[in-house]
Amino acid sequence: MLLSSGFDITGIKNVSQTLGPIEQLDVEIGQPGHAITRVKKVAGAKAYIHQCTPDPITPDSEWTSVTITESENIFTNLKSIAKYWFRVIAIGKGKQSVYSALVSRVIQ
């Protein structure tokens, strides 16, 4: 009935938009115990999950996750002189998600 009313219908959006890939994950070592994860904004992404875990990666690894709308995050309170692995997951509509490559860094 609304479609035949003659009025413009707002709120109809293209839900078939697919997420673009995460092309590169940059991990910058900042102050002691800090690491900054950064990706370019992903087309269609509504949120980003920034994750890190201590080395080595195993099926039982526990990832520390921060879910935010920004494509950059600062991890704090990391152990000095320890190797960590980082990744970012972009989240879109309809349960879409894309993962970055894994990147490792030794924290100062």
Tell me what the structure shows:
It is a single chain. By secondary structure, the protein is mainly β. The protein has a single domain, classed as Immunoglobulins (Immunoglobulin-like). Helix content is 0%, strand content 40%. It has no helices and eight strands. Strands 3, 4, 6, 7 and 8 form a five-stranded antiparallel sheet that branches. The relative contact order is 0.29.
What's the arrangement of secondary structure elements?
Blueprint: E1 25-29, E2 35-39, E3 47-54, E4 64-68, E5 72-75, E6 83-91, E7 97-99, E8 103-106
Antiparallel strand pairs: 1-2, 2-5, 3-4, 3-6, 6-7, 6-8
Arithmetic mean of pLDDT: 89
The secondary-structure element order is EEEEEEEE
This entry's quaternary arrangement is single chain
Distance N to C terminus: 64 Å
Assess the beta-strand content as a share of residues.
35-45%
Number of domains: 1
CATH homology group = Immunoglobulins
Number of helices: 0
- Give the CA-based shape: elongated
CATH level-two architecture: Sandwich
Given as residue ranges, the uncertain stretches (5+ residues, pLDDT < 50) are: none
Structural class: mainly beta
What is the number of E strands? 8
CATH class: Mainly Beta
CATH topology call: Immunoglobulin-like
Helicity level: under 10%
Q: How does the major sheet shape up?
A: 5 strands, antiparallel
